[in-house]
C-alpha cells in the first residue's frame, strides 16, 4: 500500500525521534485520552450526539483530535476514535450507553457464536470512515505534530466481545481461555487479521505512528499472557512492519499492555519501537528490564494531576530523572479522567518540556 497523499511538512518531529531512540531538545509529551471529557469544548461539541455517530464523522473526529492541540503544546496528536469500531466492523452491535460505557446487546456466549462474525472484513468498506478522519486530520494539523493511529489488541477486544462491556474480573472472557482455548485462538486470529489490515489502512491514510492498546493485560497471568496475548501482539507488529517495508515506509509502533509488568521483557522484544507503561512500574527498573532495546512511554499516575501544580512539577522531574531524556516519551500511565482540571494538564506538559530541557543541558 503506497501513501498517495501529499501532506504538509512536519514541523515538530521530537515524538518520532524519541520513538526511534534519537536525541531530542526536549522530551516529547502527549496524554492518553487527551481528546476527552475533561475539556469543556469536548463536552460541548459531543453534547446530544451519539458516540459512535461521532466516530463515523471524519469532520467531528478531526475537530475533537485538534481541540487539545489548541490548548496545549503536545508533541503528538491521537486520532479521535475508539477501539470498539473493530467488533462493529466484524458485525457486532456496540452502543455507548450514558453512565455505563460501551455495551454489546448481544455479546458472544459460546464458540458457535463465532459463526455470526464476518469471516472476512473489508476494512476500506467497514472502517473507511476512520481512514477519512485520519487523512483530513493530517491535513488540518498542517504539520504541527505527528498523528498517531491506534487499535485495540486482540485479547482486549475479545474480552469486550464476550463480556458485552466493561468488567472488573473479565471472568466470562477468561472462561473461554480455560474452557474453549481453541475457539479463543480462532477469535484472536480473526481479530489479528482485521487489526493488521486496519493499521495498514491507517498508515496509508496518513497515520505517522501506531499504538496498540492491550488495556486488559492485567487480568491475565504470565502464563495466559504468553499464550493468548503476546503471540498476537508480535504477529501484528511483524506483519504490519513487513508490509510497510515493502513500500519503503517506516512507522514506529507502540505497545501498551496495561498492568502487564510480568511481560515487560517479552514486550521489549516484540518488534515494537516503544513500550508504554502504566504507573505501577518504577522508571529505573523499567529501563533495566527492557535493556535499552526500546524507547519507553508513560507513566505518571493520572491521579497525580489532582495535585497542586508545584507538586506535579516535582513528580515530573523525578520521572524524567528515572527514565532519562533519551528514548523517552512522557505520558500518563493511563487516560485522563473527565474530572481533571485542564490547567493541571497544561502544568504537566510544561513541566515535561522545561525539566527535560534543563536535564539535557546538564
Ligand atoms: C473520549 C472517549 C473515547 N472513548 C470513550 C470516550 C468517552 C465517552 C464520550 O466521550 O462520550 C468511550 C469508551 N471506550 C472504551 C471505554 C472503556 C470502557 C470500560 O472498559 O469500562 C470507554 C468509557 C473502550 C476503550 N477505548 C479505548 C480504549 C483503550 C485505552 C484505554 O485503556 O482506556 C478502551 C479500553 C481507546 C480510545 N477511546 C477514545 C480514544 C480517543 C483518543 C484519545 O486518547 O484522545 C482512544 C485512544 C475515545
From TrEMBL:
<dbReference type="GO" id="GO:0006782">
    <property type="term" value="P:protoporphyrinogen IX biosynthetic process"/>
</dbReference>
<comment type="similarity">
    <text>Belongs to the uroporphyrinogen decarboxylase family.</text>
</comment>
<feature type="domain" description="Uroporphyrinogen decarboxylase (URO-D)">
    <location>
        <begin position="28"/>
        <end position="37"/>
    </location>
</feature>
<dbReference type="InterPro" id="IPR038071">
    <property type="entry name" value="UROD/MetE-like_sf"/>
</dbReference>
<keyword id="KW-0210">Decarboxylase</keyword>
<comment type="pathway">
    <text>Porphyrin-containing compound metabolism; protoporphyrin-IX biosynthesis; coproporphyrinogen-III from 5-aminolevulinate: step 4/4.</text>
</comment>
<feature type="domain" description="Uroporphyrinogen decarboxylase (URO-D)">
    <location>
        <begin position="148"/>
        <end position="164"/>
    </location>
</feature>
<protein>
    <recommendedName>
        <fullName>Uroporphyrinogen decarboxylase</fullName>
        <ecNumber>4.1.1.37</ecNumber>
    </recommendedName>
</protein>
<dbReference type="Pfam" id="PF01208">
    <property type="entry name" value="URO-D"/>
</dbReference>
<dbReference type="GO" id="GO:0004853">
    <property type="term" value="F:uroporphyrinogen decarboxylase activity"/>
</dbReference>
<keyword id="KW-0350">Heme biosynthesis</keyword>
<comment type="function">
    <text>Catalyzes the sequential decarboxylation of the four acetate side chains of uroporphyrinogen to form coproporphyrinogen and participates in the fifth step in the heme biosynthetic pathway. Isomer I or isomer III of uroporphyrinogen may serve as substrate, but only coproporphyrinogen III can ultimately be converted to heme. In vitro also decarboxylates pentacarboxylate porphyrinogen I.</text>
</comment>
<dbReference type="GO" id="GO:0005829">
    <property type="term" value="C:cytosol"/>
</dbReference>
<dbReference type="InterPro" id="IPR006361">
    <property type="entry name" value="Uroporphyrinogen_deCO2ase_HemE"/>
</dbReference>
<keyword id="KW-0627">Porphyrin biosynthesis</keyword>
<dbReference type="InterPro" id="IPR000257">
    <property type="entry name" value="Uroporphyrinogen_deCOase"/>
</dbReference>
<keyword id="KW-0963">Cytoplasm</keyword>
<keyword id="KW-0456">Lyase</keyword>
Amino acid at each position: 500500500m503506497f501513501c498517495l497523499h501529499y501532506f504538509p511538512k512536519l514541523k515538530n518531529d521530537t515524538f518520532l525521534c524519541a520513538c526511534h531512540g534519537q536525541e531530542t531538545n526536549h522530551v516529547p509529551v502527549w496524554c492518553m485520552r487527551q481528546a476527552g471529557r475533561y475539556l469543556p469544548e469536548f463536552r460541548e461539541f459531543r453534547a446530544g450526539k451519539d458516540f459512535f455517530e461521532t466516530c463515523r464523522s471524519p469532520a467531528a473526529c478531526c475537530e475533537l483530535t485538534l481541540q487539545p492541540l489548541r490548548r496545549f503544546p503536545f508533541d503528538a496528536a491521537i486520532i479521535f476514535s475508539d477501539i470498539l469500531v473493530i467488533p462493529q466492523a466484524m458485525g457486532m452491535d456496540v452502543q455507548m450507553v450514558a453512565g455505563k460505557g460501551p455495551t454489546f446487546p448481544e455479546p458472544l456466549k459460546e464458540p458457535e457464536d463465532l459463526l455470526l462474525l464476518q469471516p472476512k472484513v473489508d476494512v476500506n468498506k467497514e472502517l473507511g470512515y476512520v481512514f477519512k478522519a485520519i487523512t483530513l486530520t493530517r491535513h488540518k494539523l498542517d504539520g504541527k505534530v505527528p498523528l498517531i493511529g491506534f487499535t485495540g489488541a486482540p485479547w482486549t477486544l475479545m474480552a469486550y466481545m464476550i463480556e458485552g462491556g466493561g468488567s472488573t474480573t473479565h471472568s466470562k472472557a477468561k472462561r473461554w481461555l480455560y474452557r474453549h482455548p481453541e475457539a479463543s485462538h480462532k477469535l484472536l486470529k480473526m481479530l489479528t487479521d482485521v487489526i493488521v489490515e486496519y493499521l495498514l489502512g491507517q498508515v496509508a491514510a496518513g497515520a505517522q505512528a501506531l499504538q496498540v492498546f492491550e488495556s486488559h493485560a492485567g487480568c491475565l497471568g504470565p502464563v495466559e499472557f504468553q499464550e493468548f496475548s503476546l503471540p498476537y501482539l508480535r504477529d501484528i507488529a511483524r506483519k504490519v512492519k513487513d508490509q510497510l517495508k515493502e513500500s519503503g515506509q517506516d512507522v514506529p509502533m507502540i505497545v501498551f499492555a496495561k498492568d502487564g509488568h510480568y511481560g515487560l521483557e517479552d514486550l521489549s522484544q516484540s518488534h515494537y519501537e516503544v513500550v508504554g507503561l502504566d504507573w505501577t512500574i518504577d522508571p529505573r527498573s523499567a529501563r533495566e528490564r527492557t535493556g535499552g532495546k526500546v524507547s519507553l512511554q508513560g507513566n505518571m499516575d493520572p491521579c497525580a494531576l489532582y495535585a497542586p501544580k508545584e507538586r506535579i512539577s516535582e513528580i515530573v522531574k523525578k520521572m524524567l530523572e528515572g527514565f532519562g531524556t533519551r528514548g523517552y516519551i512522557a505520558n500518563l500511565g493511563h487516560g485522563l479522567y473527565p474530572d481533571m482540571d485542564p490547567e493541571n494538564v497544561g502544568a504537566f506538559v510544561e513541566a515535561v518540556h522545561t525539566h527535560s530541557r534543563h536535564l539535557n543541558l546538564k
